[in-house]
Design goal:
globular
């Protein structure tokens, strides 16, 4: 069995520095992905991301950051760590962004985890696009598993 990997991407009609910042600055990212990040992504940082609607969080280790070009992290450090890479390519006033997620085991469980990640990162990019281009707060992440949202949770 081949090692499963995730790859998704989209064009966001905003300058590369804005799109890059949306994924490194938790105050921006929390509008379309997780609800809280305890610090900005920077080289060597250990970061905690929280999804308050589900009562879950993950630890992130930042491996590499190249401003407006690339972010490389390991996440899910407590359980089944995988590597995530964001690549940013300036295209005039727009940005082509790709996400790669690697390190899944070559098992049936690894394939399921990769498929779940593909779905999740596709929703994240759609949410980022909606937020950055239209300033509309997407609810894709909370709405994906409505039966798991904690009772009484509000943004």
């Amino acid at each position: 069995m081949l090692t499963p990997q995730v790859h998704t991407g989209t064009l966001i009609h905003r300058p590369v520095d804005e799109v890059y910042q949306a994924f490194t600055e938790p105050g921006v990212t929390s509008w379309f992905w997780f609800t809280h990040g305890d610090r900005r992504l920077s080289p060597g940082a250990r970061v905690k991301w929280t999804w308050g609607m589900y009562g879950v969080s993950t630890q992130v280790a930042v491996k590499d950051v190249q401003v407006n070009r690339r972010i490389l992290i390991d996440w899910n450090l407590e359980d089944q760590p995988t590597e995530i890479e964001w690549r940013f390519e300036e295209r005039g006033k727009s940005t082509w962004i790709e996400i790669f997620n690697r390190g899944f085991p070559a098992t049936d469980e690894g394939v399921k985890a990769a498929l779940d990640a593909m779905e999740g990162f596709t929703l994240v990019l759609a949410g980022a696009k909606l937020w950055l281009e239209r300033a509309i707060e997407p609810t894709f992440i909370a709405d994906r598993f409505p039966d798991r949202v904690l009772p009484g949770w509000k943004r």
